[in-house]
Specification:
Elements lengths: L6 H13 L4 E5 L3 H16 L5 E4 L12 H5 L5 E6 L6 H9 L2 E6 L13 E3 L15 H13 L5 H17 L6 H14 L5 H7 L9 H12 L4 E2 L2 E2 H6 L4 H33 L7 E5 L7 H12 L3 E6 L3 E7 L6 H6 L5 E6 L3 E7 L3 H12 L1
Helix pairs in contact: 1-5, 2-5, 2-6, 5-6, 6-7, 6-9, 8-11, 11-12
Length: about 375
């Protein structure tokens, strides 16, 4: 049986860092897939004896997505920088990290772009030379396999079960196909969720509003709440809740999230309505809209709704002073990453999956970006 390329290598490098007490930085995206990846790797290295480590989530709205200069400047080097659920598109940023004294290990599941970053180790089933037959993992599935590799027979049954719960939830949240390796891990993880020991998940699953729902409906609702933007001391609420050991504190956070979830739904409805009004008379082959007032974290859901309704690729962005950051969603049959590869000469960053991706572009290039996308999808 083929193995995922570089998975053994990454496990050995992390074990060496633990053994030699090197500083390790676990650097993860702040969505559900990224957060669950971080939780699994953190609990794995602690089980393997690590003490000298830091967890870091870049703030998408302030620092941008993936590895970026601001984040690197706030981290201490030299260190082993293990990047989860991002990094495959960060060519310039990895060069900068190398210069700053970091050794970069990337564990990512997104589409590689025109050029690979010069990381010490890259694990991504979609990279060239990876012969593992299944390519559609969520990042959390890759990190679970990495964890099995790191701990071997030291992985206890309760730990394995708690990891598979997170794998199931994050794979569903990231809308990865439910087949082969994914379906196997989802089914096993869902079997354990009913009796989860994790106080954060207990608090969410026991919310009165979710009581009458079947398990898969509960998971979808809980995932939506865990995706709410609420950052404290640089840590997203999903991470804080998933590692919270106290059930009372977890219940208080869950109640607060439920309230915020209703506010989020109202805000998304308002954005969708505004976009629908704007595009009513436009006869364009894509939806390309932005605004200074839109909350970046809500644009993925809004774009998904509009893509479903219009059957077109949807590019939504929040406009800042000099540049704009956006979320992209598209129906089946469209590849938004391939489309953005054609705009590689002026996009600041971009990447993701064919149907769900993101970008950052200078405001002066917005019109050029739109024209080239329309040309590509024509």
């Amino acid at each position: 049986m083929e193995k995922i390329k570089n998975l053994d290598k990454a496990a050995k490098r992390i074990l060496r860092a633990i053994r030699e007490k090197e500083p390790i930085v676990i650097y993860g995206d702040s969505d559900m897939d990224g957060v669950c990846s971080v939780v699994i790797l953190e609990e794995t290295i602690v089980s393997a004896g690590a003490k000298n480590y830091t967890v870091y989530f870049p703030d998408r709205e302030i620092e941008g997505y993936g590895i970026n200069k601001k984040s690197l400047s706030s981290l201490k080097s030299p260190a082993l920088l293990v990047v989860l659920d991002c990094g495959i598109g960060n060519v310039k940023e990895v060069d900068l990290a190398n210069k700053m004294g970091f050794e970069v290990v990337i564990i990512d599941h997104h589409e590689p772009l025109n050029k690979y970053p010069a990381a010490s180790i890259i694990v991504d089933p979609k990279q060239k030379g990876d012969n593992y037959p299944f390519k559609e993992f969520a990042n959390v599935g890759l990190v679970f396999k990495l964890s099995e590799n790191i701990l071997g027979n030291k992985m206890s049954e309760p730990l394995k079960k708690s990891f598979l719960e997170l794998v199931a939830m994050a794979t569903i949240a990231d809308m990865m196909p439910r087949k082969e390796d994914n379906e196997e891990m989802i089914m096993e993880g869902m079997g354990y969720l009913k009796d989860t020991w994790r106080p954060g998940l207990q608090a969410l699953f026991n919310l009165y509003e979710f009581k009458k729902l079947v398990l898969i409906e509960k998971i979808i609702k809980v995932n939506s709440l865990l995706n709410i933007r609420d950052v404290k001391d640089g840590l997203p609420v999903a991470y804080r809740l998933l590692i919270e050991p106290d059930i009372k504190k977890a219940e208080a956070i869950a109640d607060k999230l439920l309230e915020a979830g209703e506010e989020k739904r109202i805000m998304i409805r308002e954005i969708v309505k505004e976009i629908e009004d704007r595009i009513l008379r436009k006869k364009e082959n894509i939806v390309f809209e932005g605004d200074e007032s839109w909350n970046l974290i809500l644009l993925g859901v809004a774009a998904a709704i509009i893509a479903k309704n219009t059957k077109k690729p949807v590019f939504l962005y929040t406009k800042y002073e000099k540049d704009s950051q956006g979320s992209v969603r598209a129906p089946d049959g469209f590849n938004t990453v391939e489309a953005m590869k054609k705009c590689d000469d002026f996009l600041l960053t971009y990447g993701g999956h064919p149907r769900a991706s993101g970008f950052k572009v200078k405001n002066k290039d917005l019109e050029r970006f739109k024209e080239r996308l329309m040309e590509y999808f024509r």
